[in-house]
Amino acid sequence: MEYDPKEKNRIAGYEYNTLMSLMHVSVSKHLLDEHFTLVWANAFYYELIGWDKDEYEARYNNLCDTYYADDQEELAKLTEVVMDAIEGSKGGYTHISHMPKKDGEYVWVRMVATFADEYIDGYQVSYTVMTDINDLVLMQKAQTVTYNALPGFVAKFHIDKDFGLTLLEANARYTAFFGDDCWDTGADPLFLQNYAQNQQAIEASREKILSGQPISLGLTVKGVDGREARLQVNASCVDWQNQEPIYLAIFIDITDVTELREMQQKLEAQAAELKETLTAAEQASRAKSDFLSSMSHDIRTPMNAIVGMTEIARIHLDDPGRVENCLDKIALSSQHLLGLINDVLDMSAIESGSMALSNSAFSLPDFMENIVAIIQPAAAEKRQHLFIRTFGVEHEHLYADPLRLKQIFINILSNAVKFTPEEGSITLTLEEFPAAHEGCGQFRFTFADTGMGMTDAFMTHIFDSFTRERDSRVDKTEGSGLGMAITKRIVDMMGGRITVRSAEGKGSTFVVYLSLHIEENPACYPALPPLRVLIADDDELMCEYAAQTLDALGIDAECAEDGEDTVRQIISAHDAGQGFDVLILDWKMPGVDGLEVTRQIRARIGEELPILIASSYDWADIKKEALSAGANDFISKPLFKSTLCHTLKRLIYAENSPIADKEKKPQYNFGGRRFLLVEDNALNQEIGVELLSQAGAIVECADDGIQGCEKFAQSPPGYYSLILMDVQMPVMNGYEATQKIRALPRADARAVPIIAMTADAFAADIEKARESGMDGHLAKPLDLPLMLQELSKLL
């Protein structure tokens, strides 16, 4: 008799399912996706778990992770086994699982899975055979234990969800000690004897007990004869009843040895503590000795340069070029010396607890522009590649201590520049994630370099004070050995955390996690017309993120992966009459770089397409060549939403481009304004008068606070436009002088701007200056551009 193919398949399927059912074997087909989706299963699969096929599909939608939703621990075990098999290319796995059933009970099954060379919707298929081994497991658990042959007291308890104990079995020693009443009271021997330490020990193990984990604890109990005993309890979960654990416990009487053991443990703990203290003290002493030896050298180096260059300049006063060169080197050495001193002062302030954090509003794009401006020149000098990336940054206006945040960034990045060889790369990535607390953003800052890396031994001490890697390459670099210790302390003070991973010869990666307060009012961006923008960048992730950012602004954005692709897309779109409105072009791309792409586009389609050159490098370095190639404007990386929006607005609406102005330093003119400089140090007076006079100000001096008050009081109203007040002075300090001036019975005494000048740049000092009535704060030594900028704001 001939069967058609369909009938043959039906009969074969029936025979297969019948055979599997007789063998009590479940066969199922799954996708290796995030849900471990069930594609097909035989009848015994559903029989095994107690669900009808239609009920199962309706309730769980064939998603295995949903089926295990009430048993996350078992789901985690299964997921770990599957992922281990996938990642290890094992071709399958074997696993014993505690599988939930419809009636709330569990069945033990043995899973044997094979990964097939078959794919559905892009996901690999797994065939799984499950065998019911419930009886075998229960048999093993039910094996008889001869309790009386075991040492100590032995008992089996059922523990309900309310943490109540029911005694199920016990050996003769247990009942002899607690008495026959223990069968009536159940939990009485362990719980109802009111010993505080018993309750504390048992409560501490509550979660472990209810989840069936092994426990070990000590109890103090009274026997039926009134004798008090100290018992060591070791218990394991041997079964479950109605999802409640059954524990087998062994109680060992350690009364006689407890007191002696406790005394011995105390002595051992004290000895270990003393040894650790001594070792730590010796290590700290050695570290400080090494630090002082290193610092004496590091401080002498810039000091020698300052003294030597000063002498050379004095000899060559008739050679302005040579004098200018000497002054440049003196300025660099002075900044380096100041950095070393600041590290020591910061560490001292942190360890004494006198460093406090401010909480000020700041702009993340402006902050990053400042960071790049500081780090980029040093990186460019070593021809290093500096990459700045942003992902998911929705909030650009934040609240924190920007000065200390800047210190974190500069400490890590300057080390990256210092210990990365020429033509290496440094990548800073900024990411924002939803925070647990309202009004905050969770930020992750990742600093990665391709530098020399660190040994595993040194990584454990990277955040210790006075430590540096012992390496001949490190010895050639200058530093205090305090930078990373300061960084770690500041991160801790800001409520964040910092991690590091590194490998010798492969570079280092530091990750800083901070929760920062955000501006509650969402940023408003200017409306832009419908635009079609092409973003060209060989950094695929950065390119895609920039495109997503523009999409959020209502702009149609597309990506190009290199120079050749950029030219091809621009020409193709132009020839089709669907040209792009703007091209954002990365300057540094492999192969054909951004400037060459600009030249090719101008040669092919002329000047009609606005081209923005994007770079984290200083625009001044490439401006002349970029404008010559045909670029219209510049946009700095990282590409924040506000940066993209305002740059495009300026470009589209033909506003005055700030490119030319970016290079120009702001010009300050205080002509006709009279300043009072209250400073006890004659040299500082001379420097202040000279610098301020260069900006057109008329400067008068007072040698201390009393003189300053007298000069102001004796002057006509409105005579002084501003007062620069030193804080640490003899006779009367700057805080008192400010309060006396503010108290004078004249209107200008309350209105005249008073700026503090001090070497103390901590948040507490700034706050103290404000409380005394001062309007601003300048840190010594005076930074001329910063000083002029601050004075200009107040005037």
TrEMBL record:
One of its GO terms (cellular component) is membrane. Residues 294-518 form the Histidine kinase domain. The keyword Phosphoprotein applies. Its main location: membrane. It catalyses: ATP + protein L-histidine = ADP + protein N-phospho-L-histidine. Keywords: Coiled coil, Kinase, Phosphoprotein, Transferase, Two-component regulatory system. GO terms for molecular function: phosphorelay sensor kinase activity. It comes from the Bacteria. The modification 4-aspartylphosphate is found at residues 586, 726. This is Stage 0 sporulation protein A homolog.
